[in-house]
C-alpha cells in the first residue's frame, strides 16, 4: 500500500501530521541532549592537546555551527520550492525555519566568543569563519525583517525567498574558511580539519549532540509552522471547524 505524500503539501493535511510528530521529536531531543552532555562531560579526556577543560564547549559550539548552515540550506530549498511550485506550505516552512536558524547561529557565535577568549585571548577577531558566520546571522535577521516589513504575505514570501537564495553563497564560504586546501590563502584562528583520528569518545559525544540539535530543530520548526498555518489560514473553513471541535 503506497502513501500519497503529495497530499501533505496542503496546510490542512500537514497541520495534524506536524502535531503528531512534535512530541516524538521533543522526547528525542531531551534524551539525546542528556546523553550527549553526559558523554561529553564525563566520558571524554580532561585535557585535549593544548586545551584544557574548556574544550568541551565544542559539544555545543560545533553542533550549533553545523545546524546554522544546514538550516539555512533547508530554508533556501523550501523558499525555492515555493517560488517554483507556488505552494503556500513551502513558504510557511521557510518562515518557520528562520528563527531557529538564527538562534543556532547566535549560539555558535556566542560559544565561539567564549572559546576564543580562553584559547586565543580575545572575544572577537575578524577571523574568516567568524565574520562569515556573523553575516549568516544578518541574513537570517534580514529574512525575518523583510517578511515583517511587507504586509501582503505572498509578496513578503517571494521577496524574502529571493533574499535567502542570494545569501546562500555564504554557506560554502563558511565551510571553506576553515577547510581550505591552502592554509596560506585563508589563514584563520579556527582549527582546520586535520587528517588525524578524533578521540572516539569525543566523536560520539559530538555526533549525539548534533542529532540532539537536529531533533530540537524539527520539534520547534513543526510547532512554529503549525502556528503560521493557523494564522494564515484563519479564514479557511477547516480552521473554523478545528476551533469548534477544540472548544
Unreliable runs, pLDDT <50, ≥5 residues?
none
DSSP strand tally: 0
Q: Provide the number of structural domains.
A: 1
Rg from C-alpha positions?
A: 20 Å
Q: Which architecture does the CATH hierarchy give at level 2?
A: Up-down Bundle
Topology, element by element:
Layout: H1 11-42, H2 58-85, H3 88-120, H4 128-149, H5 153-167, H6 170-178, H7 200-232, H8 237-246
Helix pairs in contact: 1-7, 2-3, 2-5, 2-7, 3-4, 3-7, 4-5, 4-6
Task: State the main characteristics.
Four Helix Bundle (Hemerythrin (Met), subunit A); mainly alpha; 247 residues; 8 helices
Structural features, described:
The protein has one domain (43-246): Four Helix Bundle (Hemerythrin (Met), subunit A) (Up-down Bundle), CATH 1.20.120. The protein contains eight helices and no strands. The protein has helices at residues 11-42, 58-85, 88-120, 128-149, 153-167, 170-178, 200-232, 237-246. The longest helix is centred in the middle third of the chain and has 33 residues, at 88-120. The chain is globular, with a radius of gyration of 20 Å. The model has no long low-confidence stretch (mean pLDDT 86).
Amino acid at each position: 500500500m503506497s502513501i500519497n505524500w503529495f497530499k501533505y503539501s496542503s496546510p490542512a493535511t500537514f497541520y495534524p501530521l506536524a502535531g503528531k510528530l512534535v512530541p516524538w521529536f521533543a522526547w528525542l531531543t531531551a534524551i539525546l541532549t542528556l546523553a550527549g552532555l553526559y558523554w561529553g562531560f564525563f566520558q571524554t579526556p580532561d585535557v585535549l592537546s593544548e586545551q584544557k577543560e574548556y574544550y568541551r564547549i565544542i559539544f555545543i559550539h560545533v553542533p550549533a555551527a553545523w545546524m546554522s548552515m544546514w538550516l539555512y540550506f533547508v530554508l533556501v530549498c523550501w523558499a525555492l520550492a515555493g517560488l517554483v511550485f507556488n505552494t503556500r506550505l513551502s513558504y510557511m516552512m521557510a518562515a518557520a525555519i528562520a528563527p531557529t536558524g538564527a538562534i543556532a547561529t547566535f549560539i555558535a557565535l556566542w560559544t565561539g566568543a567564549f572559546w576564543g577568549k580562553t584559547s586565543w585571548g580575545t572575544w572577537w577577531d575578524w577571523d574568516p569563519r567568524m565574520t562569515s558566520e556573523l553575516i549568516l546571522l544578518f541574513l537570517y535577521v534580514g529574512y525575518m525583517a523583510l517578511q515583517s516589513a511587507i504586509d501582503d504575505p505572498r509578496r513578503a514570501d517571494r521577496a524574502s525567498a529571493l533574499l535567502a537564495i542570494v545569501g546562500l553563497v555564504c554557506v560554502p564560504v563558511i565551510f571553506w574558511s576553515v577547510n581550505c586546501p591552502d592554509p596560506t590563502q585563508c589563514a584563520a584562528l579556527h582549527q582546520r580539519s586535520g587528517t588525524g583520528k578524533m578521540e572516539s569518545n569525543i566523536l560520539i559525544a559530538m555526533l549525539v549532540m548534533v542529532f540532539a540539535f537536529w531533533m530540537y530543530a524539527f520539534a520547534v520548526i513543526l510547532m512554529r509552522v503549525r502556528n503560521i498555518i493557523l494564522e494564515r489560514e484563519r479564514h479557511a473553513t477547516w480552521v473554523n471547524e478545528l476551533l469548534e471541535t477544540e472548544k
